[in-house]
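dumping the sequnces here before i forget
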Amino acid sequence: MMDNKQQTFENLVHAYSAELYRFAFWQCKNKDLTEDLLQECFARAWKSLHKLKDENAARAWLYTILKREIARHFRRNKTIDISAEDFDTGLFTAQYDCTISDDLNLRQALDKLPIDYREALMLQVLGGYSCTEIAEISGTKAGTIMTRVFRARQKLRQLLTAKTKPSANSQ
Amino acid sequence: MNCIDVHRKLTTEPNSRNAAINAHLKECSACTKFAESIGQFDHAIHKAASINVPDGLAERILLKQSFKQQHQLRTNRFKLYAVAASVLLVFGISLGLNYSPGQKDALSLGDVAINHVTNEINHLHENNNVQLARLNRLLQPFNIKLKKPIGHVNYAGACPIRHSRGVHIVLNTENETATLLVMPGEYVASRTSLIKGAFKTAIIPTKNGSIAIITPKNSKADLEQNIENSLNQAIQYI
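..and the predicted 3d for all of it:
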């Protein structure tokens, strides 16, 4: 018979692995690395599952673990920017899962955002979290997160505008 | 709430629409337009960021986790066995250190010797004046011979002592009664002593086993040593 811990763990994996994958991908931009980090995240979650008392807090708890795992990875590798061979360039071209040019432009713009801005924006847009909740997950102040998401959107607009301007001029 | 507050709120928390914001949006067409534009932009970001998740991701995570658990289980089991083996080893070593074969034999042999005398206490009161020739006949099967008397022997007889037969001798010397138990095959590593009840005993290693000298606990301090000296001078292995 499957024990309670195992059942809870499986439920968590099925419920949140996809959105956690998307969040992690936008931090490391490499499919294999993303999956490895997610695996580590869930391995840590398994070890400390007994600490999770409130099931409503499970999602934010997993985001926190994943965020720490990503930070640990980058700290270990002494760099935030990933090397060229690790970069999944396909994601930012029309061949991969992207048929609408707006999506492609946006992805390229998202890729250019500073990692702190992108992380906060992804937690808000993909995770649906408020600035206060993101601050709790990130261990920062809500004011800092507000600044990051504001500047992230501002920077995205700038990048998209700059991208469309040359083509407008060429016509 | 004015337009600046609404803009600030919408650019930082586009999903958060409280009553005050909604009330302002109803009255302000510019802010409503701004809110729509922010909503569309966020929708576009969400759409662009929602990349495809690899097929079977959850199953792979669960599978790898189950392998990890199995590995952990095996490691834990191995650790448990290692700890159990270590405990047994330490226990075995300490047992070996505390009870080396010589000591174990000597201690138990001392007990056996005193118990034997206690069980056959009546021999201490006999007065048969056993001659040296008869004593040597008793000792001969054990390849022992006494070259000269070791004192006034009140009793001598063959006795079963622990694992084998031996010789029980009661002698009177220096106005004290002492018992000798000749115990062939009962080896001890070195001379050892034991005091138990009313008696004390010294177990002396010999060529083919050991001899116990049992004297009353309150007898003269050098009585055992004097008897041992007499024995050393008289005993001969044939």
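Chain B touches chain A at residues 11-13, 15-16, 38, 41-42, 44-54, 57-58, 60-62, 64-65, 68-69 (CB under 8 Å).
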